[in-house]
Amino acid sequence: METSELQQVVADARDIVTARRVYGEPYEKNGLTVIPAASVRGAVGGGTGQHGEEDAGIGGGFGVAARPVGAWVIRGDEAVWQPAIDVNRIVAGGQLVALAAMLVVGRVMAGHRPRHRRRARRPELKVRRRDVPRRIRRLAAR
């Protein structure tokens, strides 16, 4: 790809990311005019490189992403914006909220230990006389 070809790629990218791409062709029916609108994003990149004296190269490219955002609806002298509803984004947001809720509930339940209604009685400690040293028995007798 030569420099002129890279310049052509950049010119094509500029042509794609224009206001003509954001607003679609208006169409009219029964006195109602609809002008669709989209969000258009684009990026351009390019570069050159050389390895040694003979190996040289140049390259470039661009990418474009567009999604509908709504439409202008014109009836008579009144224009109203009607946003587009992206169901995929709504579903993805609901899944993220559900995942966060499950993580929080899991952490709460992991830290929770069930309480026992009845406490176990401690066994009474029975000490036999022969197990107590004489010195302690003498101190206790005083």
Alpha plus pi helix count: 4
The Rg value, from CA coordinates, equals: 39 Å
**Quick one: overall form?**
elongated
Fraction of residues in H or I helices? 25-40%
- The spatial strand order of the largest sheet comes to 1-2-3-4
Poorly predicted runs are: none
Mean model confidence by pLDDT:
80
- What summary fits the major beta sheet? 4 strands, antiparallel
Structure summary, number of beta strands: 4
Beta-strand percent range: 35-45%
* Distance between the first and last residues' Cα: 108 Å
N-to-C series of helices and strands: HHEEEEHH
Helix and strand composition category: alpha+beta
Describe this structure in words.
- This protein is an alpha+beta fold and 142 residues long.
- It has four helices and four strands, in the order H-H-E-E-E-E-H-H.
- The protein has a domain at 3-85.
- A hairpin with a 2-residue loop joins strand 3 (55-75) and strand 4 (78-83).
- The model has no long low-confidence stretch (mean pLDDT 80).
Keywords summarizing the entry:
alpha+beta, 35% strand, four-stranded antiparallel sheet, 142 residues, 36% helix, elongated, 4 helices
